[in-house]
Design goal:
With 570 residues, the protein is an alpha/beta fold. The protein is built from 18 helices and 26 strands. The strands form five sheets. Strands 2-1-11-10-12-13-14-15-16 form a nine-stranded mixed β-sheet, sandwiched between helices. An eight-stranded mixed β-sheet has the order 7-6-5-3-4-8-9-19, with helices on both faces.
Amino acid sequence: MGGVVVERDIDDLPKNPANYTALTPLGFLERAALVHPTRKSLIHGSVAYTWHQTYRRCRQLASALTKCGATFGSTVAVIAPNTPAMYEAHFGVPMSGAVLNAVNIRLNAQTIAFLLGHSQSAVIMVDQEFYTLAEEALQIIANKSKNQFKPPILVVIADESCDPKSLQYALGRGAIEYENFLETGDGEFAWKAPEDEWHSIALGYTSGTTASPKGVVLHHRGAYLMALSNIVVWGMNEGAVYLWTLPMFHCNGWCFPWTLAALCGTSICLRQVTAKGVYSAIANLGVTHFCAAPVVLNTIVNVPKEETILPLPRVVHVMTAGAAPPPSVLSAMSERGFKVAHTYGLSETYGPSTICAWKPEWDSLPPEARARMNARQGVRYVALEGLDVVNTQNMTPVPNDGKTVGEIVFRGNAVMKGYLKNPKANEEAFANGWFHSGDLGVKHPDGYIEIKDRSKDIIISGGENISSVEVENILYQHPAIFEVSVVARPDERWGESPCAFVTLKPGVDTSNQTRLAEDIMKFSRSRMPAYWVPKSVVFGPLPKTATGKIQKHVLRTKAKEMGPVKKSRL
């Protein structure tokens, strides 16, 4: 009676194979091989591959893994630095249906044994330099498991830059050489994308500084979205030449193995990261982009002049994350011609998931002011749906005043599936519908967030909270300081007070460390509140993780062992 009859609701149209498929970054490789089959995909020393060759090798790897029993949901561990095999594993392993576990090569055998046992790795691919490390880890597992231990298949990755004796040792112990392993596979292997994009693509482990490492499980959808998001937030061009200064075992190289395939770019593998190696690659291999922790940037700006190639032959784009970068380091990088993008994230968020998105109006600011703006952690990545700083008591957002401290929380497709076999940790991490980072920060009036500290790194002195990061940023301005980390030390008067662990720049006279310490304290008193000033200064190298993060938990232990400060007057 005059009404409109709606036969089908607009949202009722069904999915079908023609209009819906699970998202996965594996298809980027197939496309790169189609579009640019002869373009260089990987360069490592005297070894170079094209995209056609890399696609074929990854299919061979997937086929070989399938033949030796790697099935859907099983785990394949890779213990290797930045080499072509590590890159190929990011495609070949998930193409077989298995899950990639890229292992930190700087871990000790005991920790690697935990990772391999916890993940139940069926196959282990290991660089020849680290074969004995893997062997020691497996022996630890065997000793604990007694007769229940089934040894995994061991594949040893050869590298021309390593001592050939280590390869011969591995082969003598029954390992299969990587190239021979590939030959058992089919270069035309008909790999299949996952039926469900929620399927796991990678497993990575947190540092485990206070307890056993937690296994972070990532899915195909997140890897796909974050790989493309890297391109968007960084403004990367097709065919970029990317230098692997960031370990691929760290958060799957921040998803850049998949990003480079999407861009049809070229990866320059750098087995060992040195400032000289970085400048050499920029000069000789056309590098346009690289990622690195702030500690690596600090090395680059403090390298002797004869090891640089300044001015740079082109603008080199740098993405930094892993710790809050000191504004002084960002300013020094800019002066040398590097364009630095500052990002922030965690293993649980596929690596960087926020960026200090640059605004054109900042270009007119003085250099120091520009560096301060770029030192903030910024806004969410394009592929991250939610980012906020909240009051942990009631989960309400903190005001945008740049002062009120809260916890940084995340939500969306760029958040992990969860921790493997750890329901209690998952319950805590995902409380109230957000992923809790454990990082404390503020929101500025423009909505950009800025980290003030890890919750465990805040120093409480005389009832006042002190941000170790803010103290470090000021200390980095001292002309003699190369690296610095500030932690809490017991203090008889104040409960705890700042203790600065300092590495000095090359050439600094260290004959009178007492006078140096006094000079640093005097410098501090002129630039920060009195209660922030370090009451003790310790000189020497700083302990670091494989990705260049300073291990504050080690320094906190050292500070505690030093005993309380007995005559703190400030």
